[in-house]
């Protein structure tokens, strides 16, 4: 159950290379095909790892030019990742429980028709992948990002963006818990429907229940992660 997915191994290796100075800030990474050959993995795994690192602002992906190191991950005072290294998944979930139910409620009130439909589409894509027992981290991350954007609150959106590293790690780990993938998929679908139906009270309550479920699991013991 705790075996790493291939792209997770690639993700960790790239971060290690950056932190160890193999690739320095501003430096261009080798092409995806070369990384795939060097690491002995499929190019799709490399592409997914790079995509996530780009989302976390560790890499900068420039269409037609290549992928560059944006953050050298150095351990200097005031560095944006310092507190992330000290934080725990339990602390993260407690913080999300404060913020994300309100984001869901705001999205139900403020989302455009296109934004609401995109949230529904992400939840349905996650559900399909879950039923096929496929990895749905990409859809999971997108779902929460779309809700944050649809809240039309720039402050709270950037608060979540700042803790992107922990959000990815939290979801990678919680998805491996028995039964959690089905529960998360069901919650996401119901939350999406509440947003599409413009029901902020229901959207808030469902997101709160979803995160409270996760909080219970983390409180059972962080030894699982």
Question: Layout of SSEs?
Answer:
Elements lengths: L5 H14 L12 H8 L3 H13 L3 E4 L3 E4 L12 H5 L2 H22 L2 H19 L5 H14 L3 H9 L1 H11 L5 H17 L3 H20 L6
Antiparallel strand pairs: 1-2
Helix pairs in contact: 1-3, 2-3, 5-7, 5-10, 5-11, 6-7, 6-10, 10-11
What report would you give on this structure?
Keywords: Coiled coil, DNA-binding, Transcription, Transcription regulation. It comes from Paenibacillus konkukensis. InterPro entries: GntR_C, TF_FadR/GntR_C, Tscrpt_reg_HTH_GntR, WH-like_DNA-bd_sf, WH_DNA-bd_sf. This is HTH-type transcriptional regulator LutR. Helix 6 packs antiparallel against helix 7. The protein is globular. It is mainly α and 225 residues long. The N and C termini lie close together (11 Å). Strands 1-2 form a two-stranded antiparallel ribbon. The chain folds into two domains: 64 residues, Orthogonal Bundle (Arc Repressor Mutant, subunit A), CATH 1.10.10.10; 143 residues, Four Helix Bundle (Hemerythrin (Met), subunit A) (Up-down Bundle), CATH 1.20.120. Strand 1 and strand 2 form a beta hairpin. About 5% of the residues have low confidence.
């Amino acid at each position: 159950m705790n075996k790493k997915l291939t792209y997770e191994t690639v993700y960790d290796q790239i971060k290690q290379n950056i932190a160890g100075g193999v690739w320095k800030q501003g430096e261009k990474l080798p092409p995806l095909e070369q990384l795939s050959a060097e690491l002995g993995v499929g190019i799709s795994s490399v592409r997914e790892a790079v995509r996530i690192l780009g989302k976390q602002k560790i890499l900068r992906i420039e269409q037609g030019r290549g992928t560059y190191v944006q953050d050298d991950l150095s351990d200097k005072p005031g560095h944006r990742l310092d507190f992330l290294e000290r934080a725990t998944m339990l602390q993260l979930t407690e913080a999300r429980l404060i913020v994300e139910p309100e984001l869901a409620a705001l999205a139900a009130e403020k989302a455009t028709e296109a934004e609401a439909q995109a949230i529904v589409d992400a939840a349905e894509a996650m559900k399909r992948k879950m039923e096929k027992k496929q990895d749905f981290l990409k859809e999971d991350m997108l779902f929460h990002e779309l809700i944050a954007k649809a809240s039309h609150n720039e402050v709270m959106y950037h608060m979540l963006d700042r803790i992107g590293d922990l959000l990815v790690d939290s979801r990678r780990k919680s998805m491996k818990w028995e039964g959690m993938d089905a529960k998360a998929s069901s919650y996401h679908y119901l939350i999406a429907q509440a947003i599409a139906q413009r029901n902020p009270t229901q959207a808030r309550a469902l997101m709160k229940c979803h995160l409270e479920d996760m909080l219970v699991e983390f409180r059972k013991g962080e030894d699982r992660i």
